[in-house]
């Protein structure tokens, strides 16, 4: 024991009873339990925008089932794949401490679950509370395979803000009339950009701004004066979104399952992969019986994008479908309003309280500088008489970090290769720490925009303190990229526009109360610096959460080695781990 004190003796029945009572009252211990779920992946018929089609679902539901657990709970999810496609599931934002086998990205921590096969994901929620979500992590299947993962605080532990009257998950999605798998296959064949979505959705519903959709409108019924917590999740494939509610101010209290210092905003910005809990207080005397909630894209892409707006309804009194067009709607920023985005994202701070301290790494063992952006592949290798549909019709779209376009292994997963120490032919541990050919990242792009391809990773020793500066490039236009790190939450210690300058930018880092997230957008024509401690052994992918950029290779992976102690080692793989 610490301080050389003698251990306390507790042998009498009264003392033992008291000890049990004390233990049960401790947050996180009393109610920790195992929650069992079954995911039957099946095709189901769904109609949106007057288009009826068969889509992959979990248990026939779209969006998928809501998982509600408490911090400290263990989850056991039995997945049965009954569709004619490979599938895996990722528990987005769950740290997966020493449970990397349950993380889910295909070919990274597991081989896909083949049609007719099953796999059971087993993991525990440790030190996280708020909103996360789950989604498929194979090709573009997450277009319809997604759902909320609500993590309540341990029993008896309050929120660090007044308890809301109701809590409502609000999943922001993207609907394709075509089969999303066909969309990405066609794009990868042609080398061009994929067709864009046909609508944005609130909990799977497009709402009255779209054809045939007035009755497919999400409605949130509210009572005057009551406070509601919206658990926002951006499940869109390829679009960052503005969100606002007419005549109502939002108060942000949580991001990516960590509490933040509350701040108010008329419009929020949320990137694919991110979650945000916002409080909304219903008016005591509303000026209208209903108000619109709206989402619309934020982008600086030079390509095409879904430039539509979806609405849902905040309803004080019942409204007929036909009357929804006249209700007040929020005015969202212009689609390319980077200033509005910067203004919003600059307000995030960790709560950094005694109960929820921000343990920001102050010293750094390993520094990395990753140039993040698009690039090209040559047309050669295409069949005679065909041309590429990428930039200028003379190349194919690609994407990279430090000019390496990530190639998924196909014969095994990175994690299996790492566990077996059989790396040859699977991966190379030589992912570059800095760009191989430095250039003016946010200036005139270089003439040669070709990328290299490889399954290249960075090995890290256990408990290494890591800093990564993610620098956007202007190759084929500057564009923000929502970078998602698996297995960790990181602190966002700095950000800026233009090229990162270690000499002057490092001094301005926030090492006191930086926001902690699992997904951060590298700003358009700018950079962001993140820090984390590599305390979770495994193979962890870090990738752009625009599925199109991930398909083009905007990813890399970290191999975090075991520590010396028994509880610092990756356990053996589960016996039902799928084989490639
Ligand atoms: Cu991207």
Observed structural traits:
6 helices; 580 residues; mainly beta; binds copper (II) ion; 36% strand; single chain; six-stranded mixed β-sheet
Could you explain how this protein is built, in words?
The protein has helices spanning 13-25, 180-190, 338-345, 414-420, 502-505, 547-551; strands at 34-48, 51-58, 67-70, 74-81, 89-92, 118-124, 130-136, 146-152, 166-175, 199-202, 219-221, 227-234, 240-245, 250-255, 258-265, 267-270, 275-281, 290-298, 310-315, 366-378, 395-401, 404-406, 452-454, 457-460, 465-472, 481-485, 490-497, 516-517, 519-522, 526-533, 538-544, 555-560. By secondary structure, the protein is mainly beta. The strands form seven sheets. It has a six-stranded mixed beta sheet, with no helix packed on it. It starts with 12 loop residues before the first helix and ends in a 20-residue tail after the last strand. The structure holds copper (II) ion (CU). Residues 1-25 form the signal peptide.
């Amino acid at each position: 024991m610490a301080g050389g004190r003698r251990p306390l003796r507790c042998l009498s029945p009264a003392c033992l009873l008291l000890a049990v009572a004390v233990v049960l009252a401790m947050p996180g211990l009393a109610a920790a339990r195992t929650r069992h779920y079954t995911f039957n992946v099946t095709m189901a018929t769904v109609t949106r925008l007057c288009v009826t089609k068969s889509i992959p679902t979990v248990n026939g539901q779209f969006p998928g089932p809501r998982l509600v657990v408490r911090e400290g709970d263990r989850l056991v999810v039995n997945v049965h794949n009954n569709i004619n496609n490979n599938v895996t599931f990722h528990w987005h934002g769950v740290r997966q401490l020493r449970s990397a086998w349950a993380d889910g990205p295909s070919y990274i921590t597991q081989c896909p679950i083949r049609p007719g096969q099953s796999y059971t994901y087993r993991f525990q929620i440790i030190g996280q509370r708020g909103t996360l979500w789950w989604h498929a992590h194979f090709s573009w299947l997450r277009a319809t395979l997604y759902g909320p993962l609500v993590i309540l605080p341990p029993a008896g532990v309050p929120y660090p803000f007044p308890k809301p009257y109701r809590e409502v998950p609000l999943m922001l999605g993207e609907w394709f009339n075509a089969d999303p798998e066909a969309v990405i296959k066609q794009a990868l064949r042609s080398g061009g950009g994929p067709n864009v979505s046909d609508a944005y959705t609130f909990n799977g519903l497009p709402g009255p701004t779209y054809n045939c959709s007035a009755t497919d409108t999400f409605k949130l019924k509210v009572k005057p004066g009551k406070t509601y917590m919206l658990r926002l999740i951006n499940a869109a494939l390829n679009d960052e979104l503005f969100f606002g509610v007419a005549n109502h101010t939002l108060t942000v209290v949580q991001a990516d399952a960590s509490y933040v210092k509350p701040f108010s905003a008329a419009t929020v910005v949320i990137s694919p992969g991110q979650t945000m809990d916002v409080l909304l207080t219903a008016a005591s005397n509303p000026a209208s019986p209903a108000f619109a909630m709206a989402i619309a894209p934020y982008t600086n892409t030079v390509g095409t994008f879904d430039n539509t707006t979806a609405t849902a309804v905040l309803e004080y009194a019942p409204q007929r479908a036909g009357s929804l067009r006249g209700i007040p709607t929020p005015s969202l920023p212009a689609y390319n309003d980077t200033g509005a985005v910067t203004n919003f994202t600059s307000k995030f701070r960790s709560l950094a309280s005694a109960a929820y301290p921000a343990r920001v790494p102050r010293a750094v063992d390993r520094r990395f500088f990753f140039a993040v952006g698009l690039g090209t592949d040559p047309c050669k290798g295409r069949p005679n008489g065909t041309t590429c549909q990428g930039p200028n019709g003379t190349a194919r779209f690609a994407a990279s970090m430090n000019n390496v376009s990530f190639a998924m292994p196909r014969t095994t997963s990175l994690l299996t290769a790492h566990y077996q120490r059989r790396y040859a032919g699977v991966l190379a541990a030589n992912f570059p720490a800095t760009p191989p050919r430095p250039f003016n990242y946010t200036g005139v792009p270089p003439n040669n925009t070709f990328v290299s391809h490889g399954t290249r990773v960075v090995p890290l020793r256990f408990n290494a303190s890591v800093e990564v500066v993610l620098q956007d490039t202007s190759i084929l236009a500057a564009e923000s990229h929502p970078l998602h790190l698996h297995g960790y939450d990181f602190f966002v210690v700095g950000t800026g526009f233009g090229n990162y300058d270690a000499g002057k930018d490092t001094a301005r880092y926030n090492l006191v109360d930086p926001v902690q997230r699992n997904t951060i957008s590298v700003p358009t024509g700018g950079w962001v610096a993140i820090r984390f401690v590599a305390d979770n052994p495994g193979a962890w992918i870090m990738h752009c959460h625009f599925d199109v950029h991930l398909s083009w290779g905007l990813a890399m992976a970290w191999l975090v080695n075991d520590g010396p102690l028994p509880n610092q080692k990756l356990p053996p793989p589960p016996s039902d781990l799928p084989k490639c």
